[in-house]
Amino acid sequence: YHKGTFYHLYKDDNECIWAYCSQDKENILVGYYRILAHPNGHMNETILLPFIDDQATYILNEERKINGSLLKRYGLKKPSSFNGVNKHDHQLIGDFQSYVYHLRKTS
């Protein structure tokens, strides 16, 4: 993992998103960093990955397969925040949070 390309994907006053793609393009790490949580934030915001191989298939966080063309066109869904109802399927809770995605190319 020590050689590859580092991408600055997004930054505003509250969020920052970085990605790292290994030199062989087999592994991608995407880091999402948020300062303050927003009550009733958007649930369908995505992280665009313009550098991804749209002909490949990827395993997301060792759990599910995702087609590269979907990732390139629509991106990854930003991590969901706890909203009082989704206590079993949220990734973030409160202020000063981060989340890291791991994409591993399978074909």
List the helices and strands and how they pair.
Elements: E1 4-11, E2 15-22, E3 27-34, E4 46-47, E5 57-60, E6 64-67, H1 68-74, E7 76-77, E8 97-105
Antiparallel strand pairs: 1-2, 2-3, 3-8, 4-7, 5-6, 5-8
Could you explain how this protein is built, in words?
A hairpin with a 3-residue loop joins strand 5 and strand 6. The strands form 2 sheets. The protein has a 6-stranded antiparallel β-sheet. About 15% of the residues are buried. The two termini are about 20 Å apart. By secondary structure, the chain is mainly beta. The chain contains 1 helix and 8 strands, in the order E-E-E-E-E-E-H-E-E. The model has no long low-confidence stretch (mean pLDDT about 85).
Which residue ranges are poorly predicted, with pLDDT under 50 across at least 5 consecutive positions? none
Strand count, sense and barrel status of the largest sheet are: 6 strands, antiparallel
Strand percentage lies at: 35-45%
Number of strands: 8
Mean pLDDT: 87
Order of helices and strands: EEEEEEHEE
Number of helices: 1
- Radius of gyration, in Å, reads 14 Å
Overall spatial form = globular
Percent helix: under 10%
- Helical/strand content category: mainly beta
Distance between the termini: 19 Å
Strand order of the largest sheet: 1-2-3-8-5-6
